[in-house]
Amino acid sequence: MLYYGERAFAPVWFNENGLTEYAHLAIATMAAANDHALDPNNYGPLELAQRSETAQTPEEWAKFDLDLSVQFLRYVTHVSSGRVQPNKVNKALNLFPHRPDPKKLFENAEQAVDFSAFLDGLPPQSDNYARLKRRLAQYREKAAAGGFTPMPDGDVLKPGMSDPRIPVLRTRLMEEDVPAAAEHAGDIYDGALVEAVKIFQEYHGLDADGVVGKNTLAQLNIPIQDKLIQMELNMERRRWMRDDLGDFYIFVNLADQNLKVVRDGKTVHTARVVVGKPYHATPVFSDQLEYVEINPYWNVPYSIATKEYLPKLKQNPMALGDQQIRVFQDGQEIPARQIAWNSYSGGNFPFRLRQDPGDGNALGRVKFMFPNKFNIYIHDTPSKSLFARPERAFSHGCIRVSDPFALAGVLLDHVNATPGHWEQIRDSGERTVVKPQALIEVHLTYLTAWMNKDGSTHFRKDIYGRDEVLLEALRTAMTQNL
């Protein structure tokens, strides 16, 4: 390592009195790596501790010192920026976490006035990471105590019904710290127990109707070990993310299918969203909001134009007229009826399809643009009914947002617009572009487990199968000791 050469190969971790305090603390920290959902065996702390007691020759001490430095660098890399590199695991994860520079790391370590504080500052410093770490420890204690009580199968349980499983249901909800469950008594499914089930359903992204049907029963019977794994995977995802997401940002959790706007650390707006179908999975990346467009045109993506609309045009050249979709070639509009559509396919399609602004526009009446190579943006939609569904993965990849004009009002509040201003522009039909004056970051994320400030622990269905892919990558990384 260059660092050793610069210090004339003087040892880092021992002196004439043996191991330094820094060495003891570093080894103890690596031994406790499981607290961060990392495998201590990857860093060999027990072997290093034993070698520090048996080393005698200068060669053995030199080898020990170098090995401890290598393992410490490996641990710091893993705990600060992740066990694996996300884009190598899945090309849809466009995250490139900063890996520590070895020379700077060891210089900072050596100069640290309080080495314990230095070690504590290596993992992510975000509250989100700290909360999930704390909840993981609590769930591990629950698992050690026997885990969750299984809920027997039976009829759909609705409020007001009597059922012998009610005491089991109450116990199961109490085991997962669901509020209100402990307040219930008796064998009638009512009152506090119904409220507790609704809270449990909310925590798991289900329709919070208080009915214990197939989906709720399945969630009640997920083994605690599966939830531990899910939390560990999301600890890794948090390590990929910046601690500071910005003063003003849009945060979309694709697995949760919800959006929030955060300003100065406070959530100022939330909204349901529709995200990409599994076949058109929305990618993970960060960007900046550049402008908001009211009454936008929709330039039909090439893949949709050729795969979905071209077959319709071959059958009926006027098929798209009712949708106000026009045909352009080299910037000139061409009447659809004048085109011999049967002469074209996906390989030789020279046209651009564009939908006029209006109520039927696929983008609705407003879109929020952060131009990127994936052609992903947030927009309105004429298909409002989908927002009522508990699972909302229906788009071709872009993000549809409920109540988009409320979102516009939050993001463009600098304009000092009077109530209804943006709706007036919408009703005028005029295409209007507005740029935000503040820097607004956009973070598209994928988190299937997290803990909120109120102590609620949330789990979501892995709609894109990314948990499974990440778990396999982490298992490989552990065995190969990368």
Distance between the termini: 18 Å
Q: Main β-sheet, in a few words?
A: 11 strands, mixed
Rounded mean pLDDT score = 93
Low-confidence stretches: none
- Radius of gyration from the CA trace? 28 Å
Note the beta-strand portion: 15-25%
Strand pairing plus helix content: what structural class? alpha+beta
Quick one: overall form? globular
Counted beta strands? 19
- State the helical fraction: 25-40%
Tally of helical segments? 16
Verbal overview:
It is a single chain. The chain has helices at about 1-5, 20-30, 45-55, 60-80, 85-90, 100-110, 115-120, 125-145, 165-175, 190-205, 215-220, 225-240, 300-315, 405-410, 420-430, 465-480, and strands at about 15, 20, 250-255, 260-265, 265-275, 285-290, 290-295, 300, 325-330, 330-335, 350-355, 365-370, 380, 395, 400, 430-435, 440-445, 450, 455-460. By secondary structure, the protein is α+β, with helices and mostly antiparallel strands. β3 (about 250-255) and β4 (about 260-265) form a beta hairpin. The longest helix is centred in the N-terminal third of the chain and has 24 residues, at about 60-80.
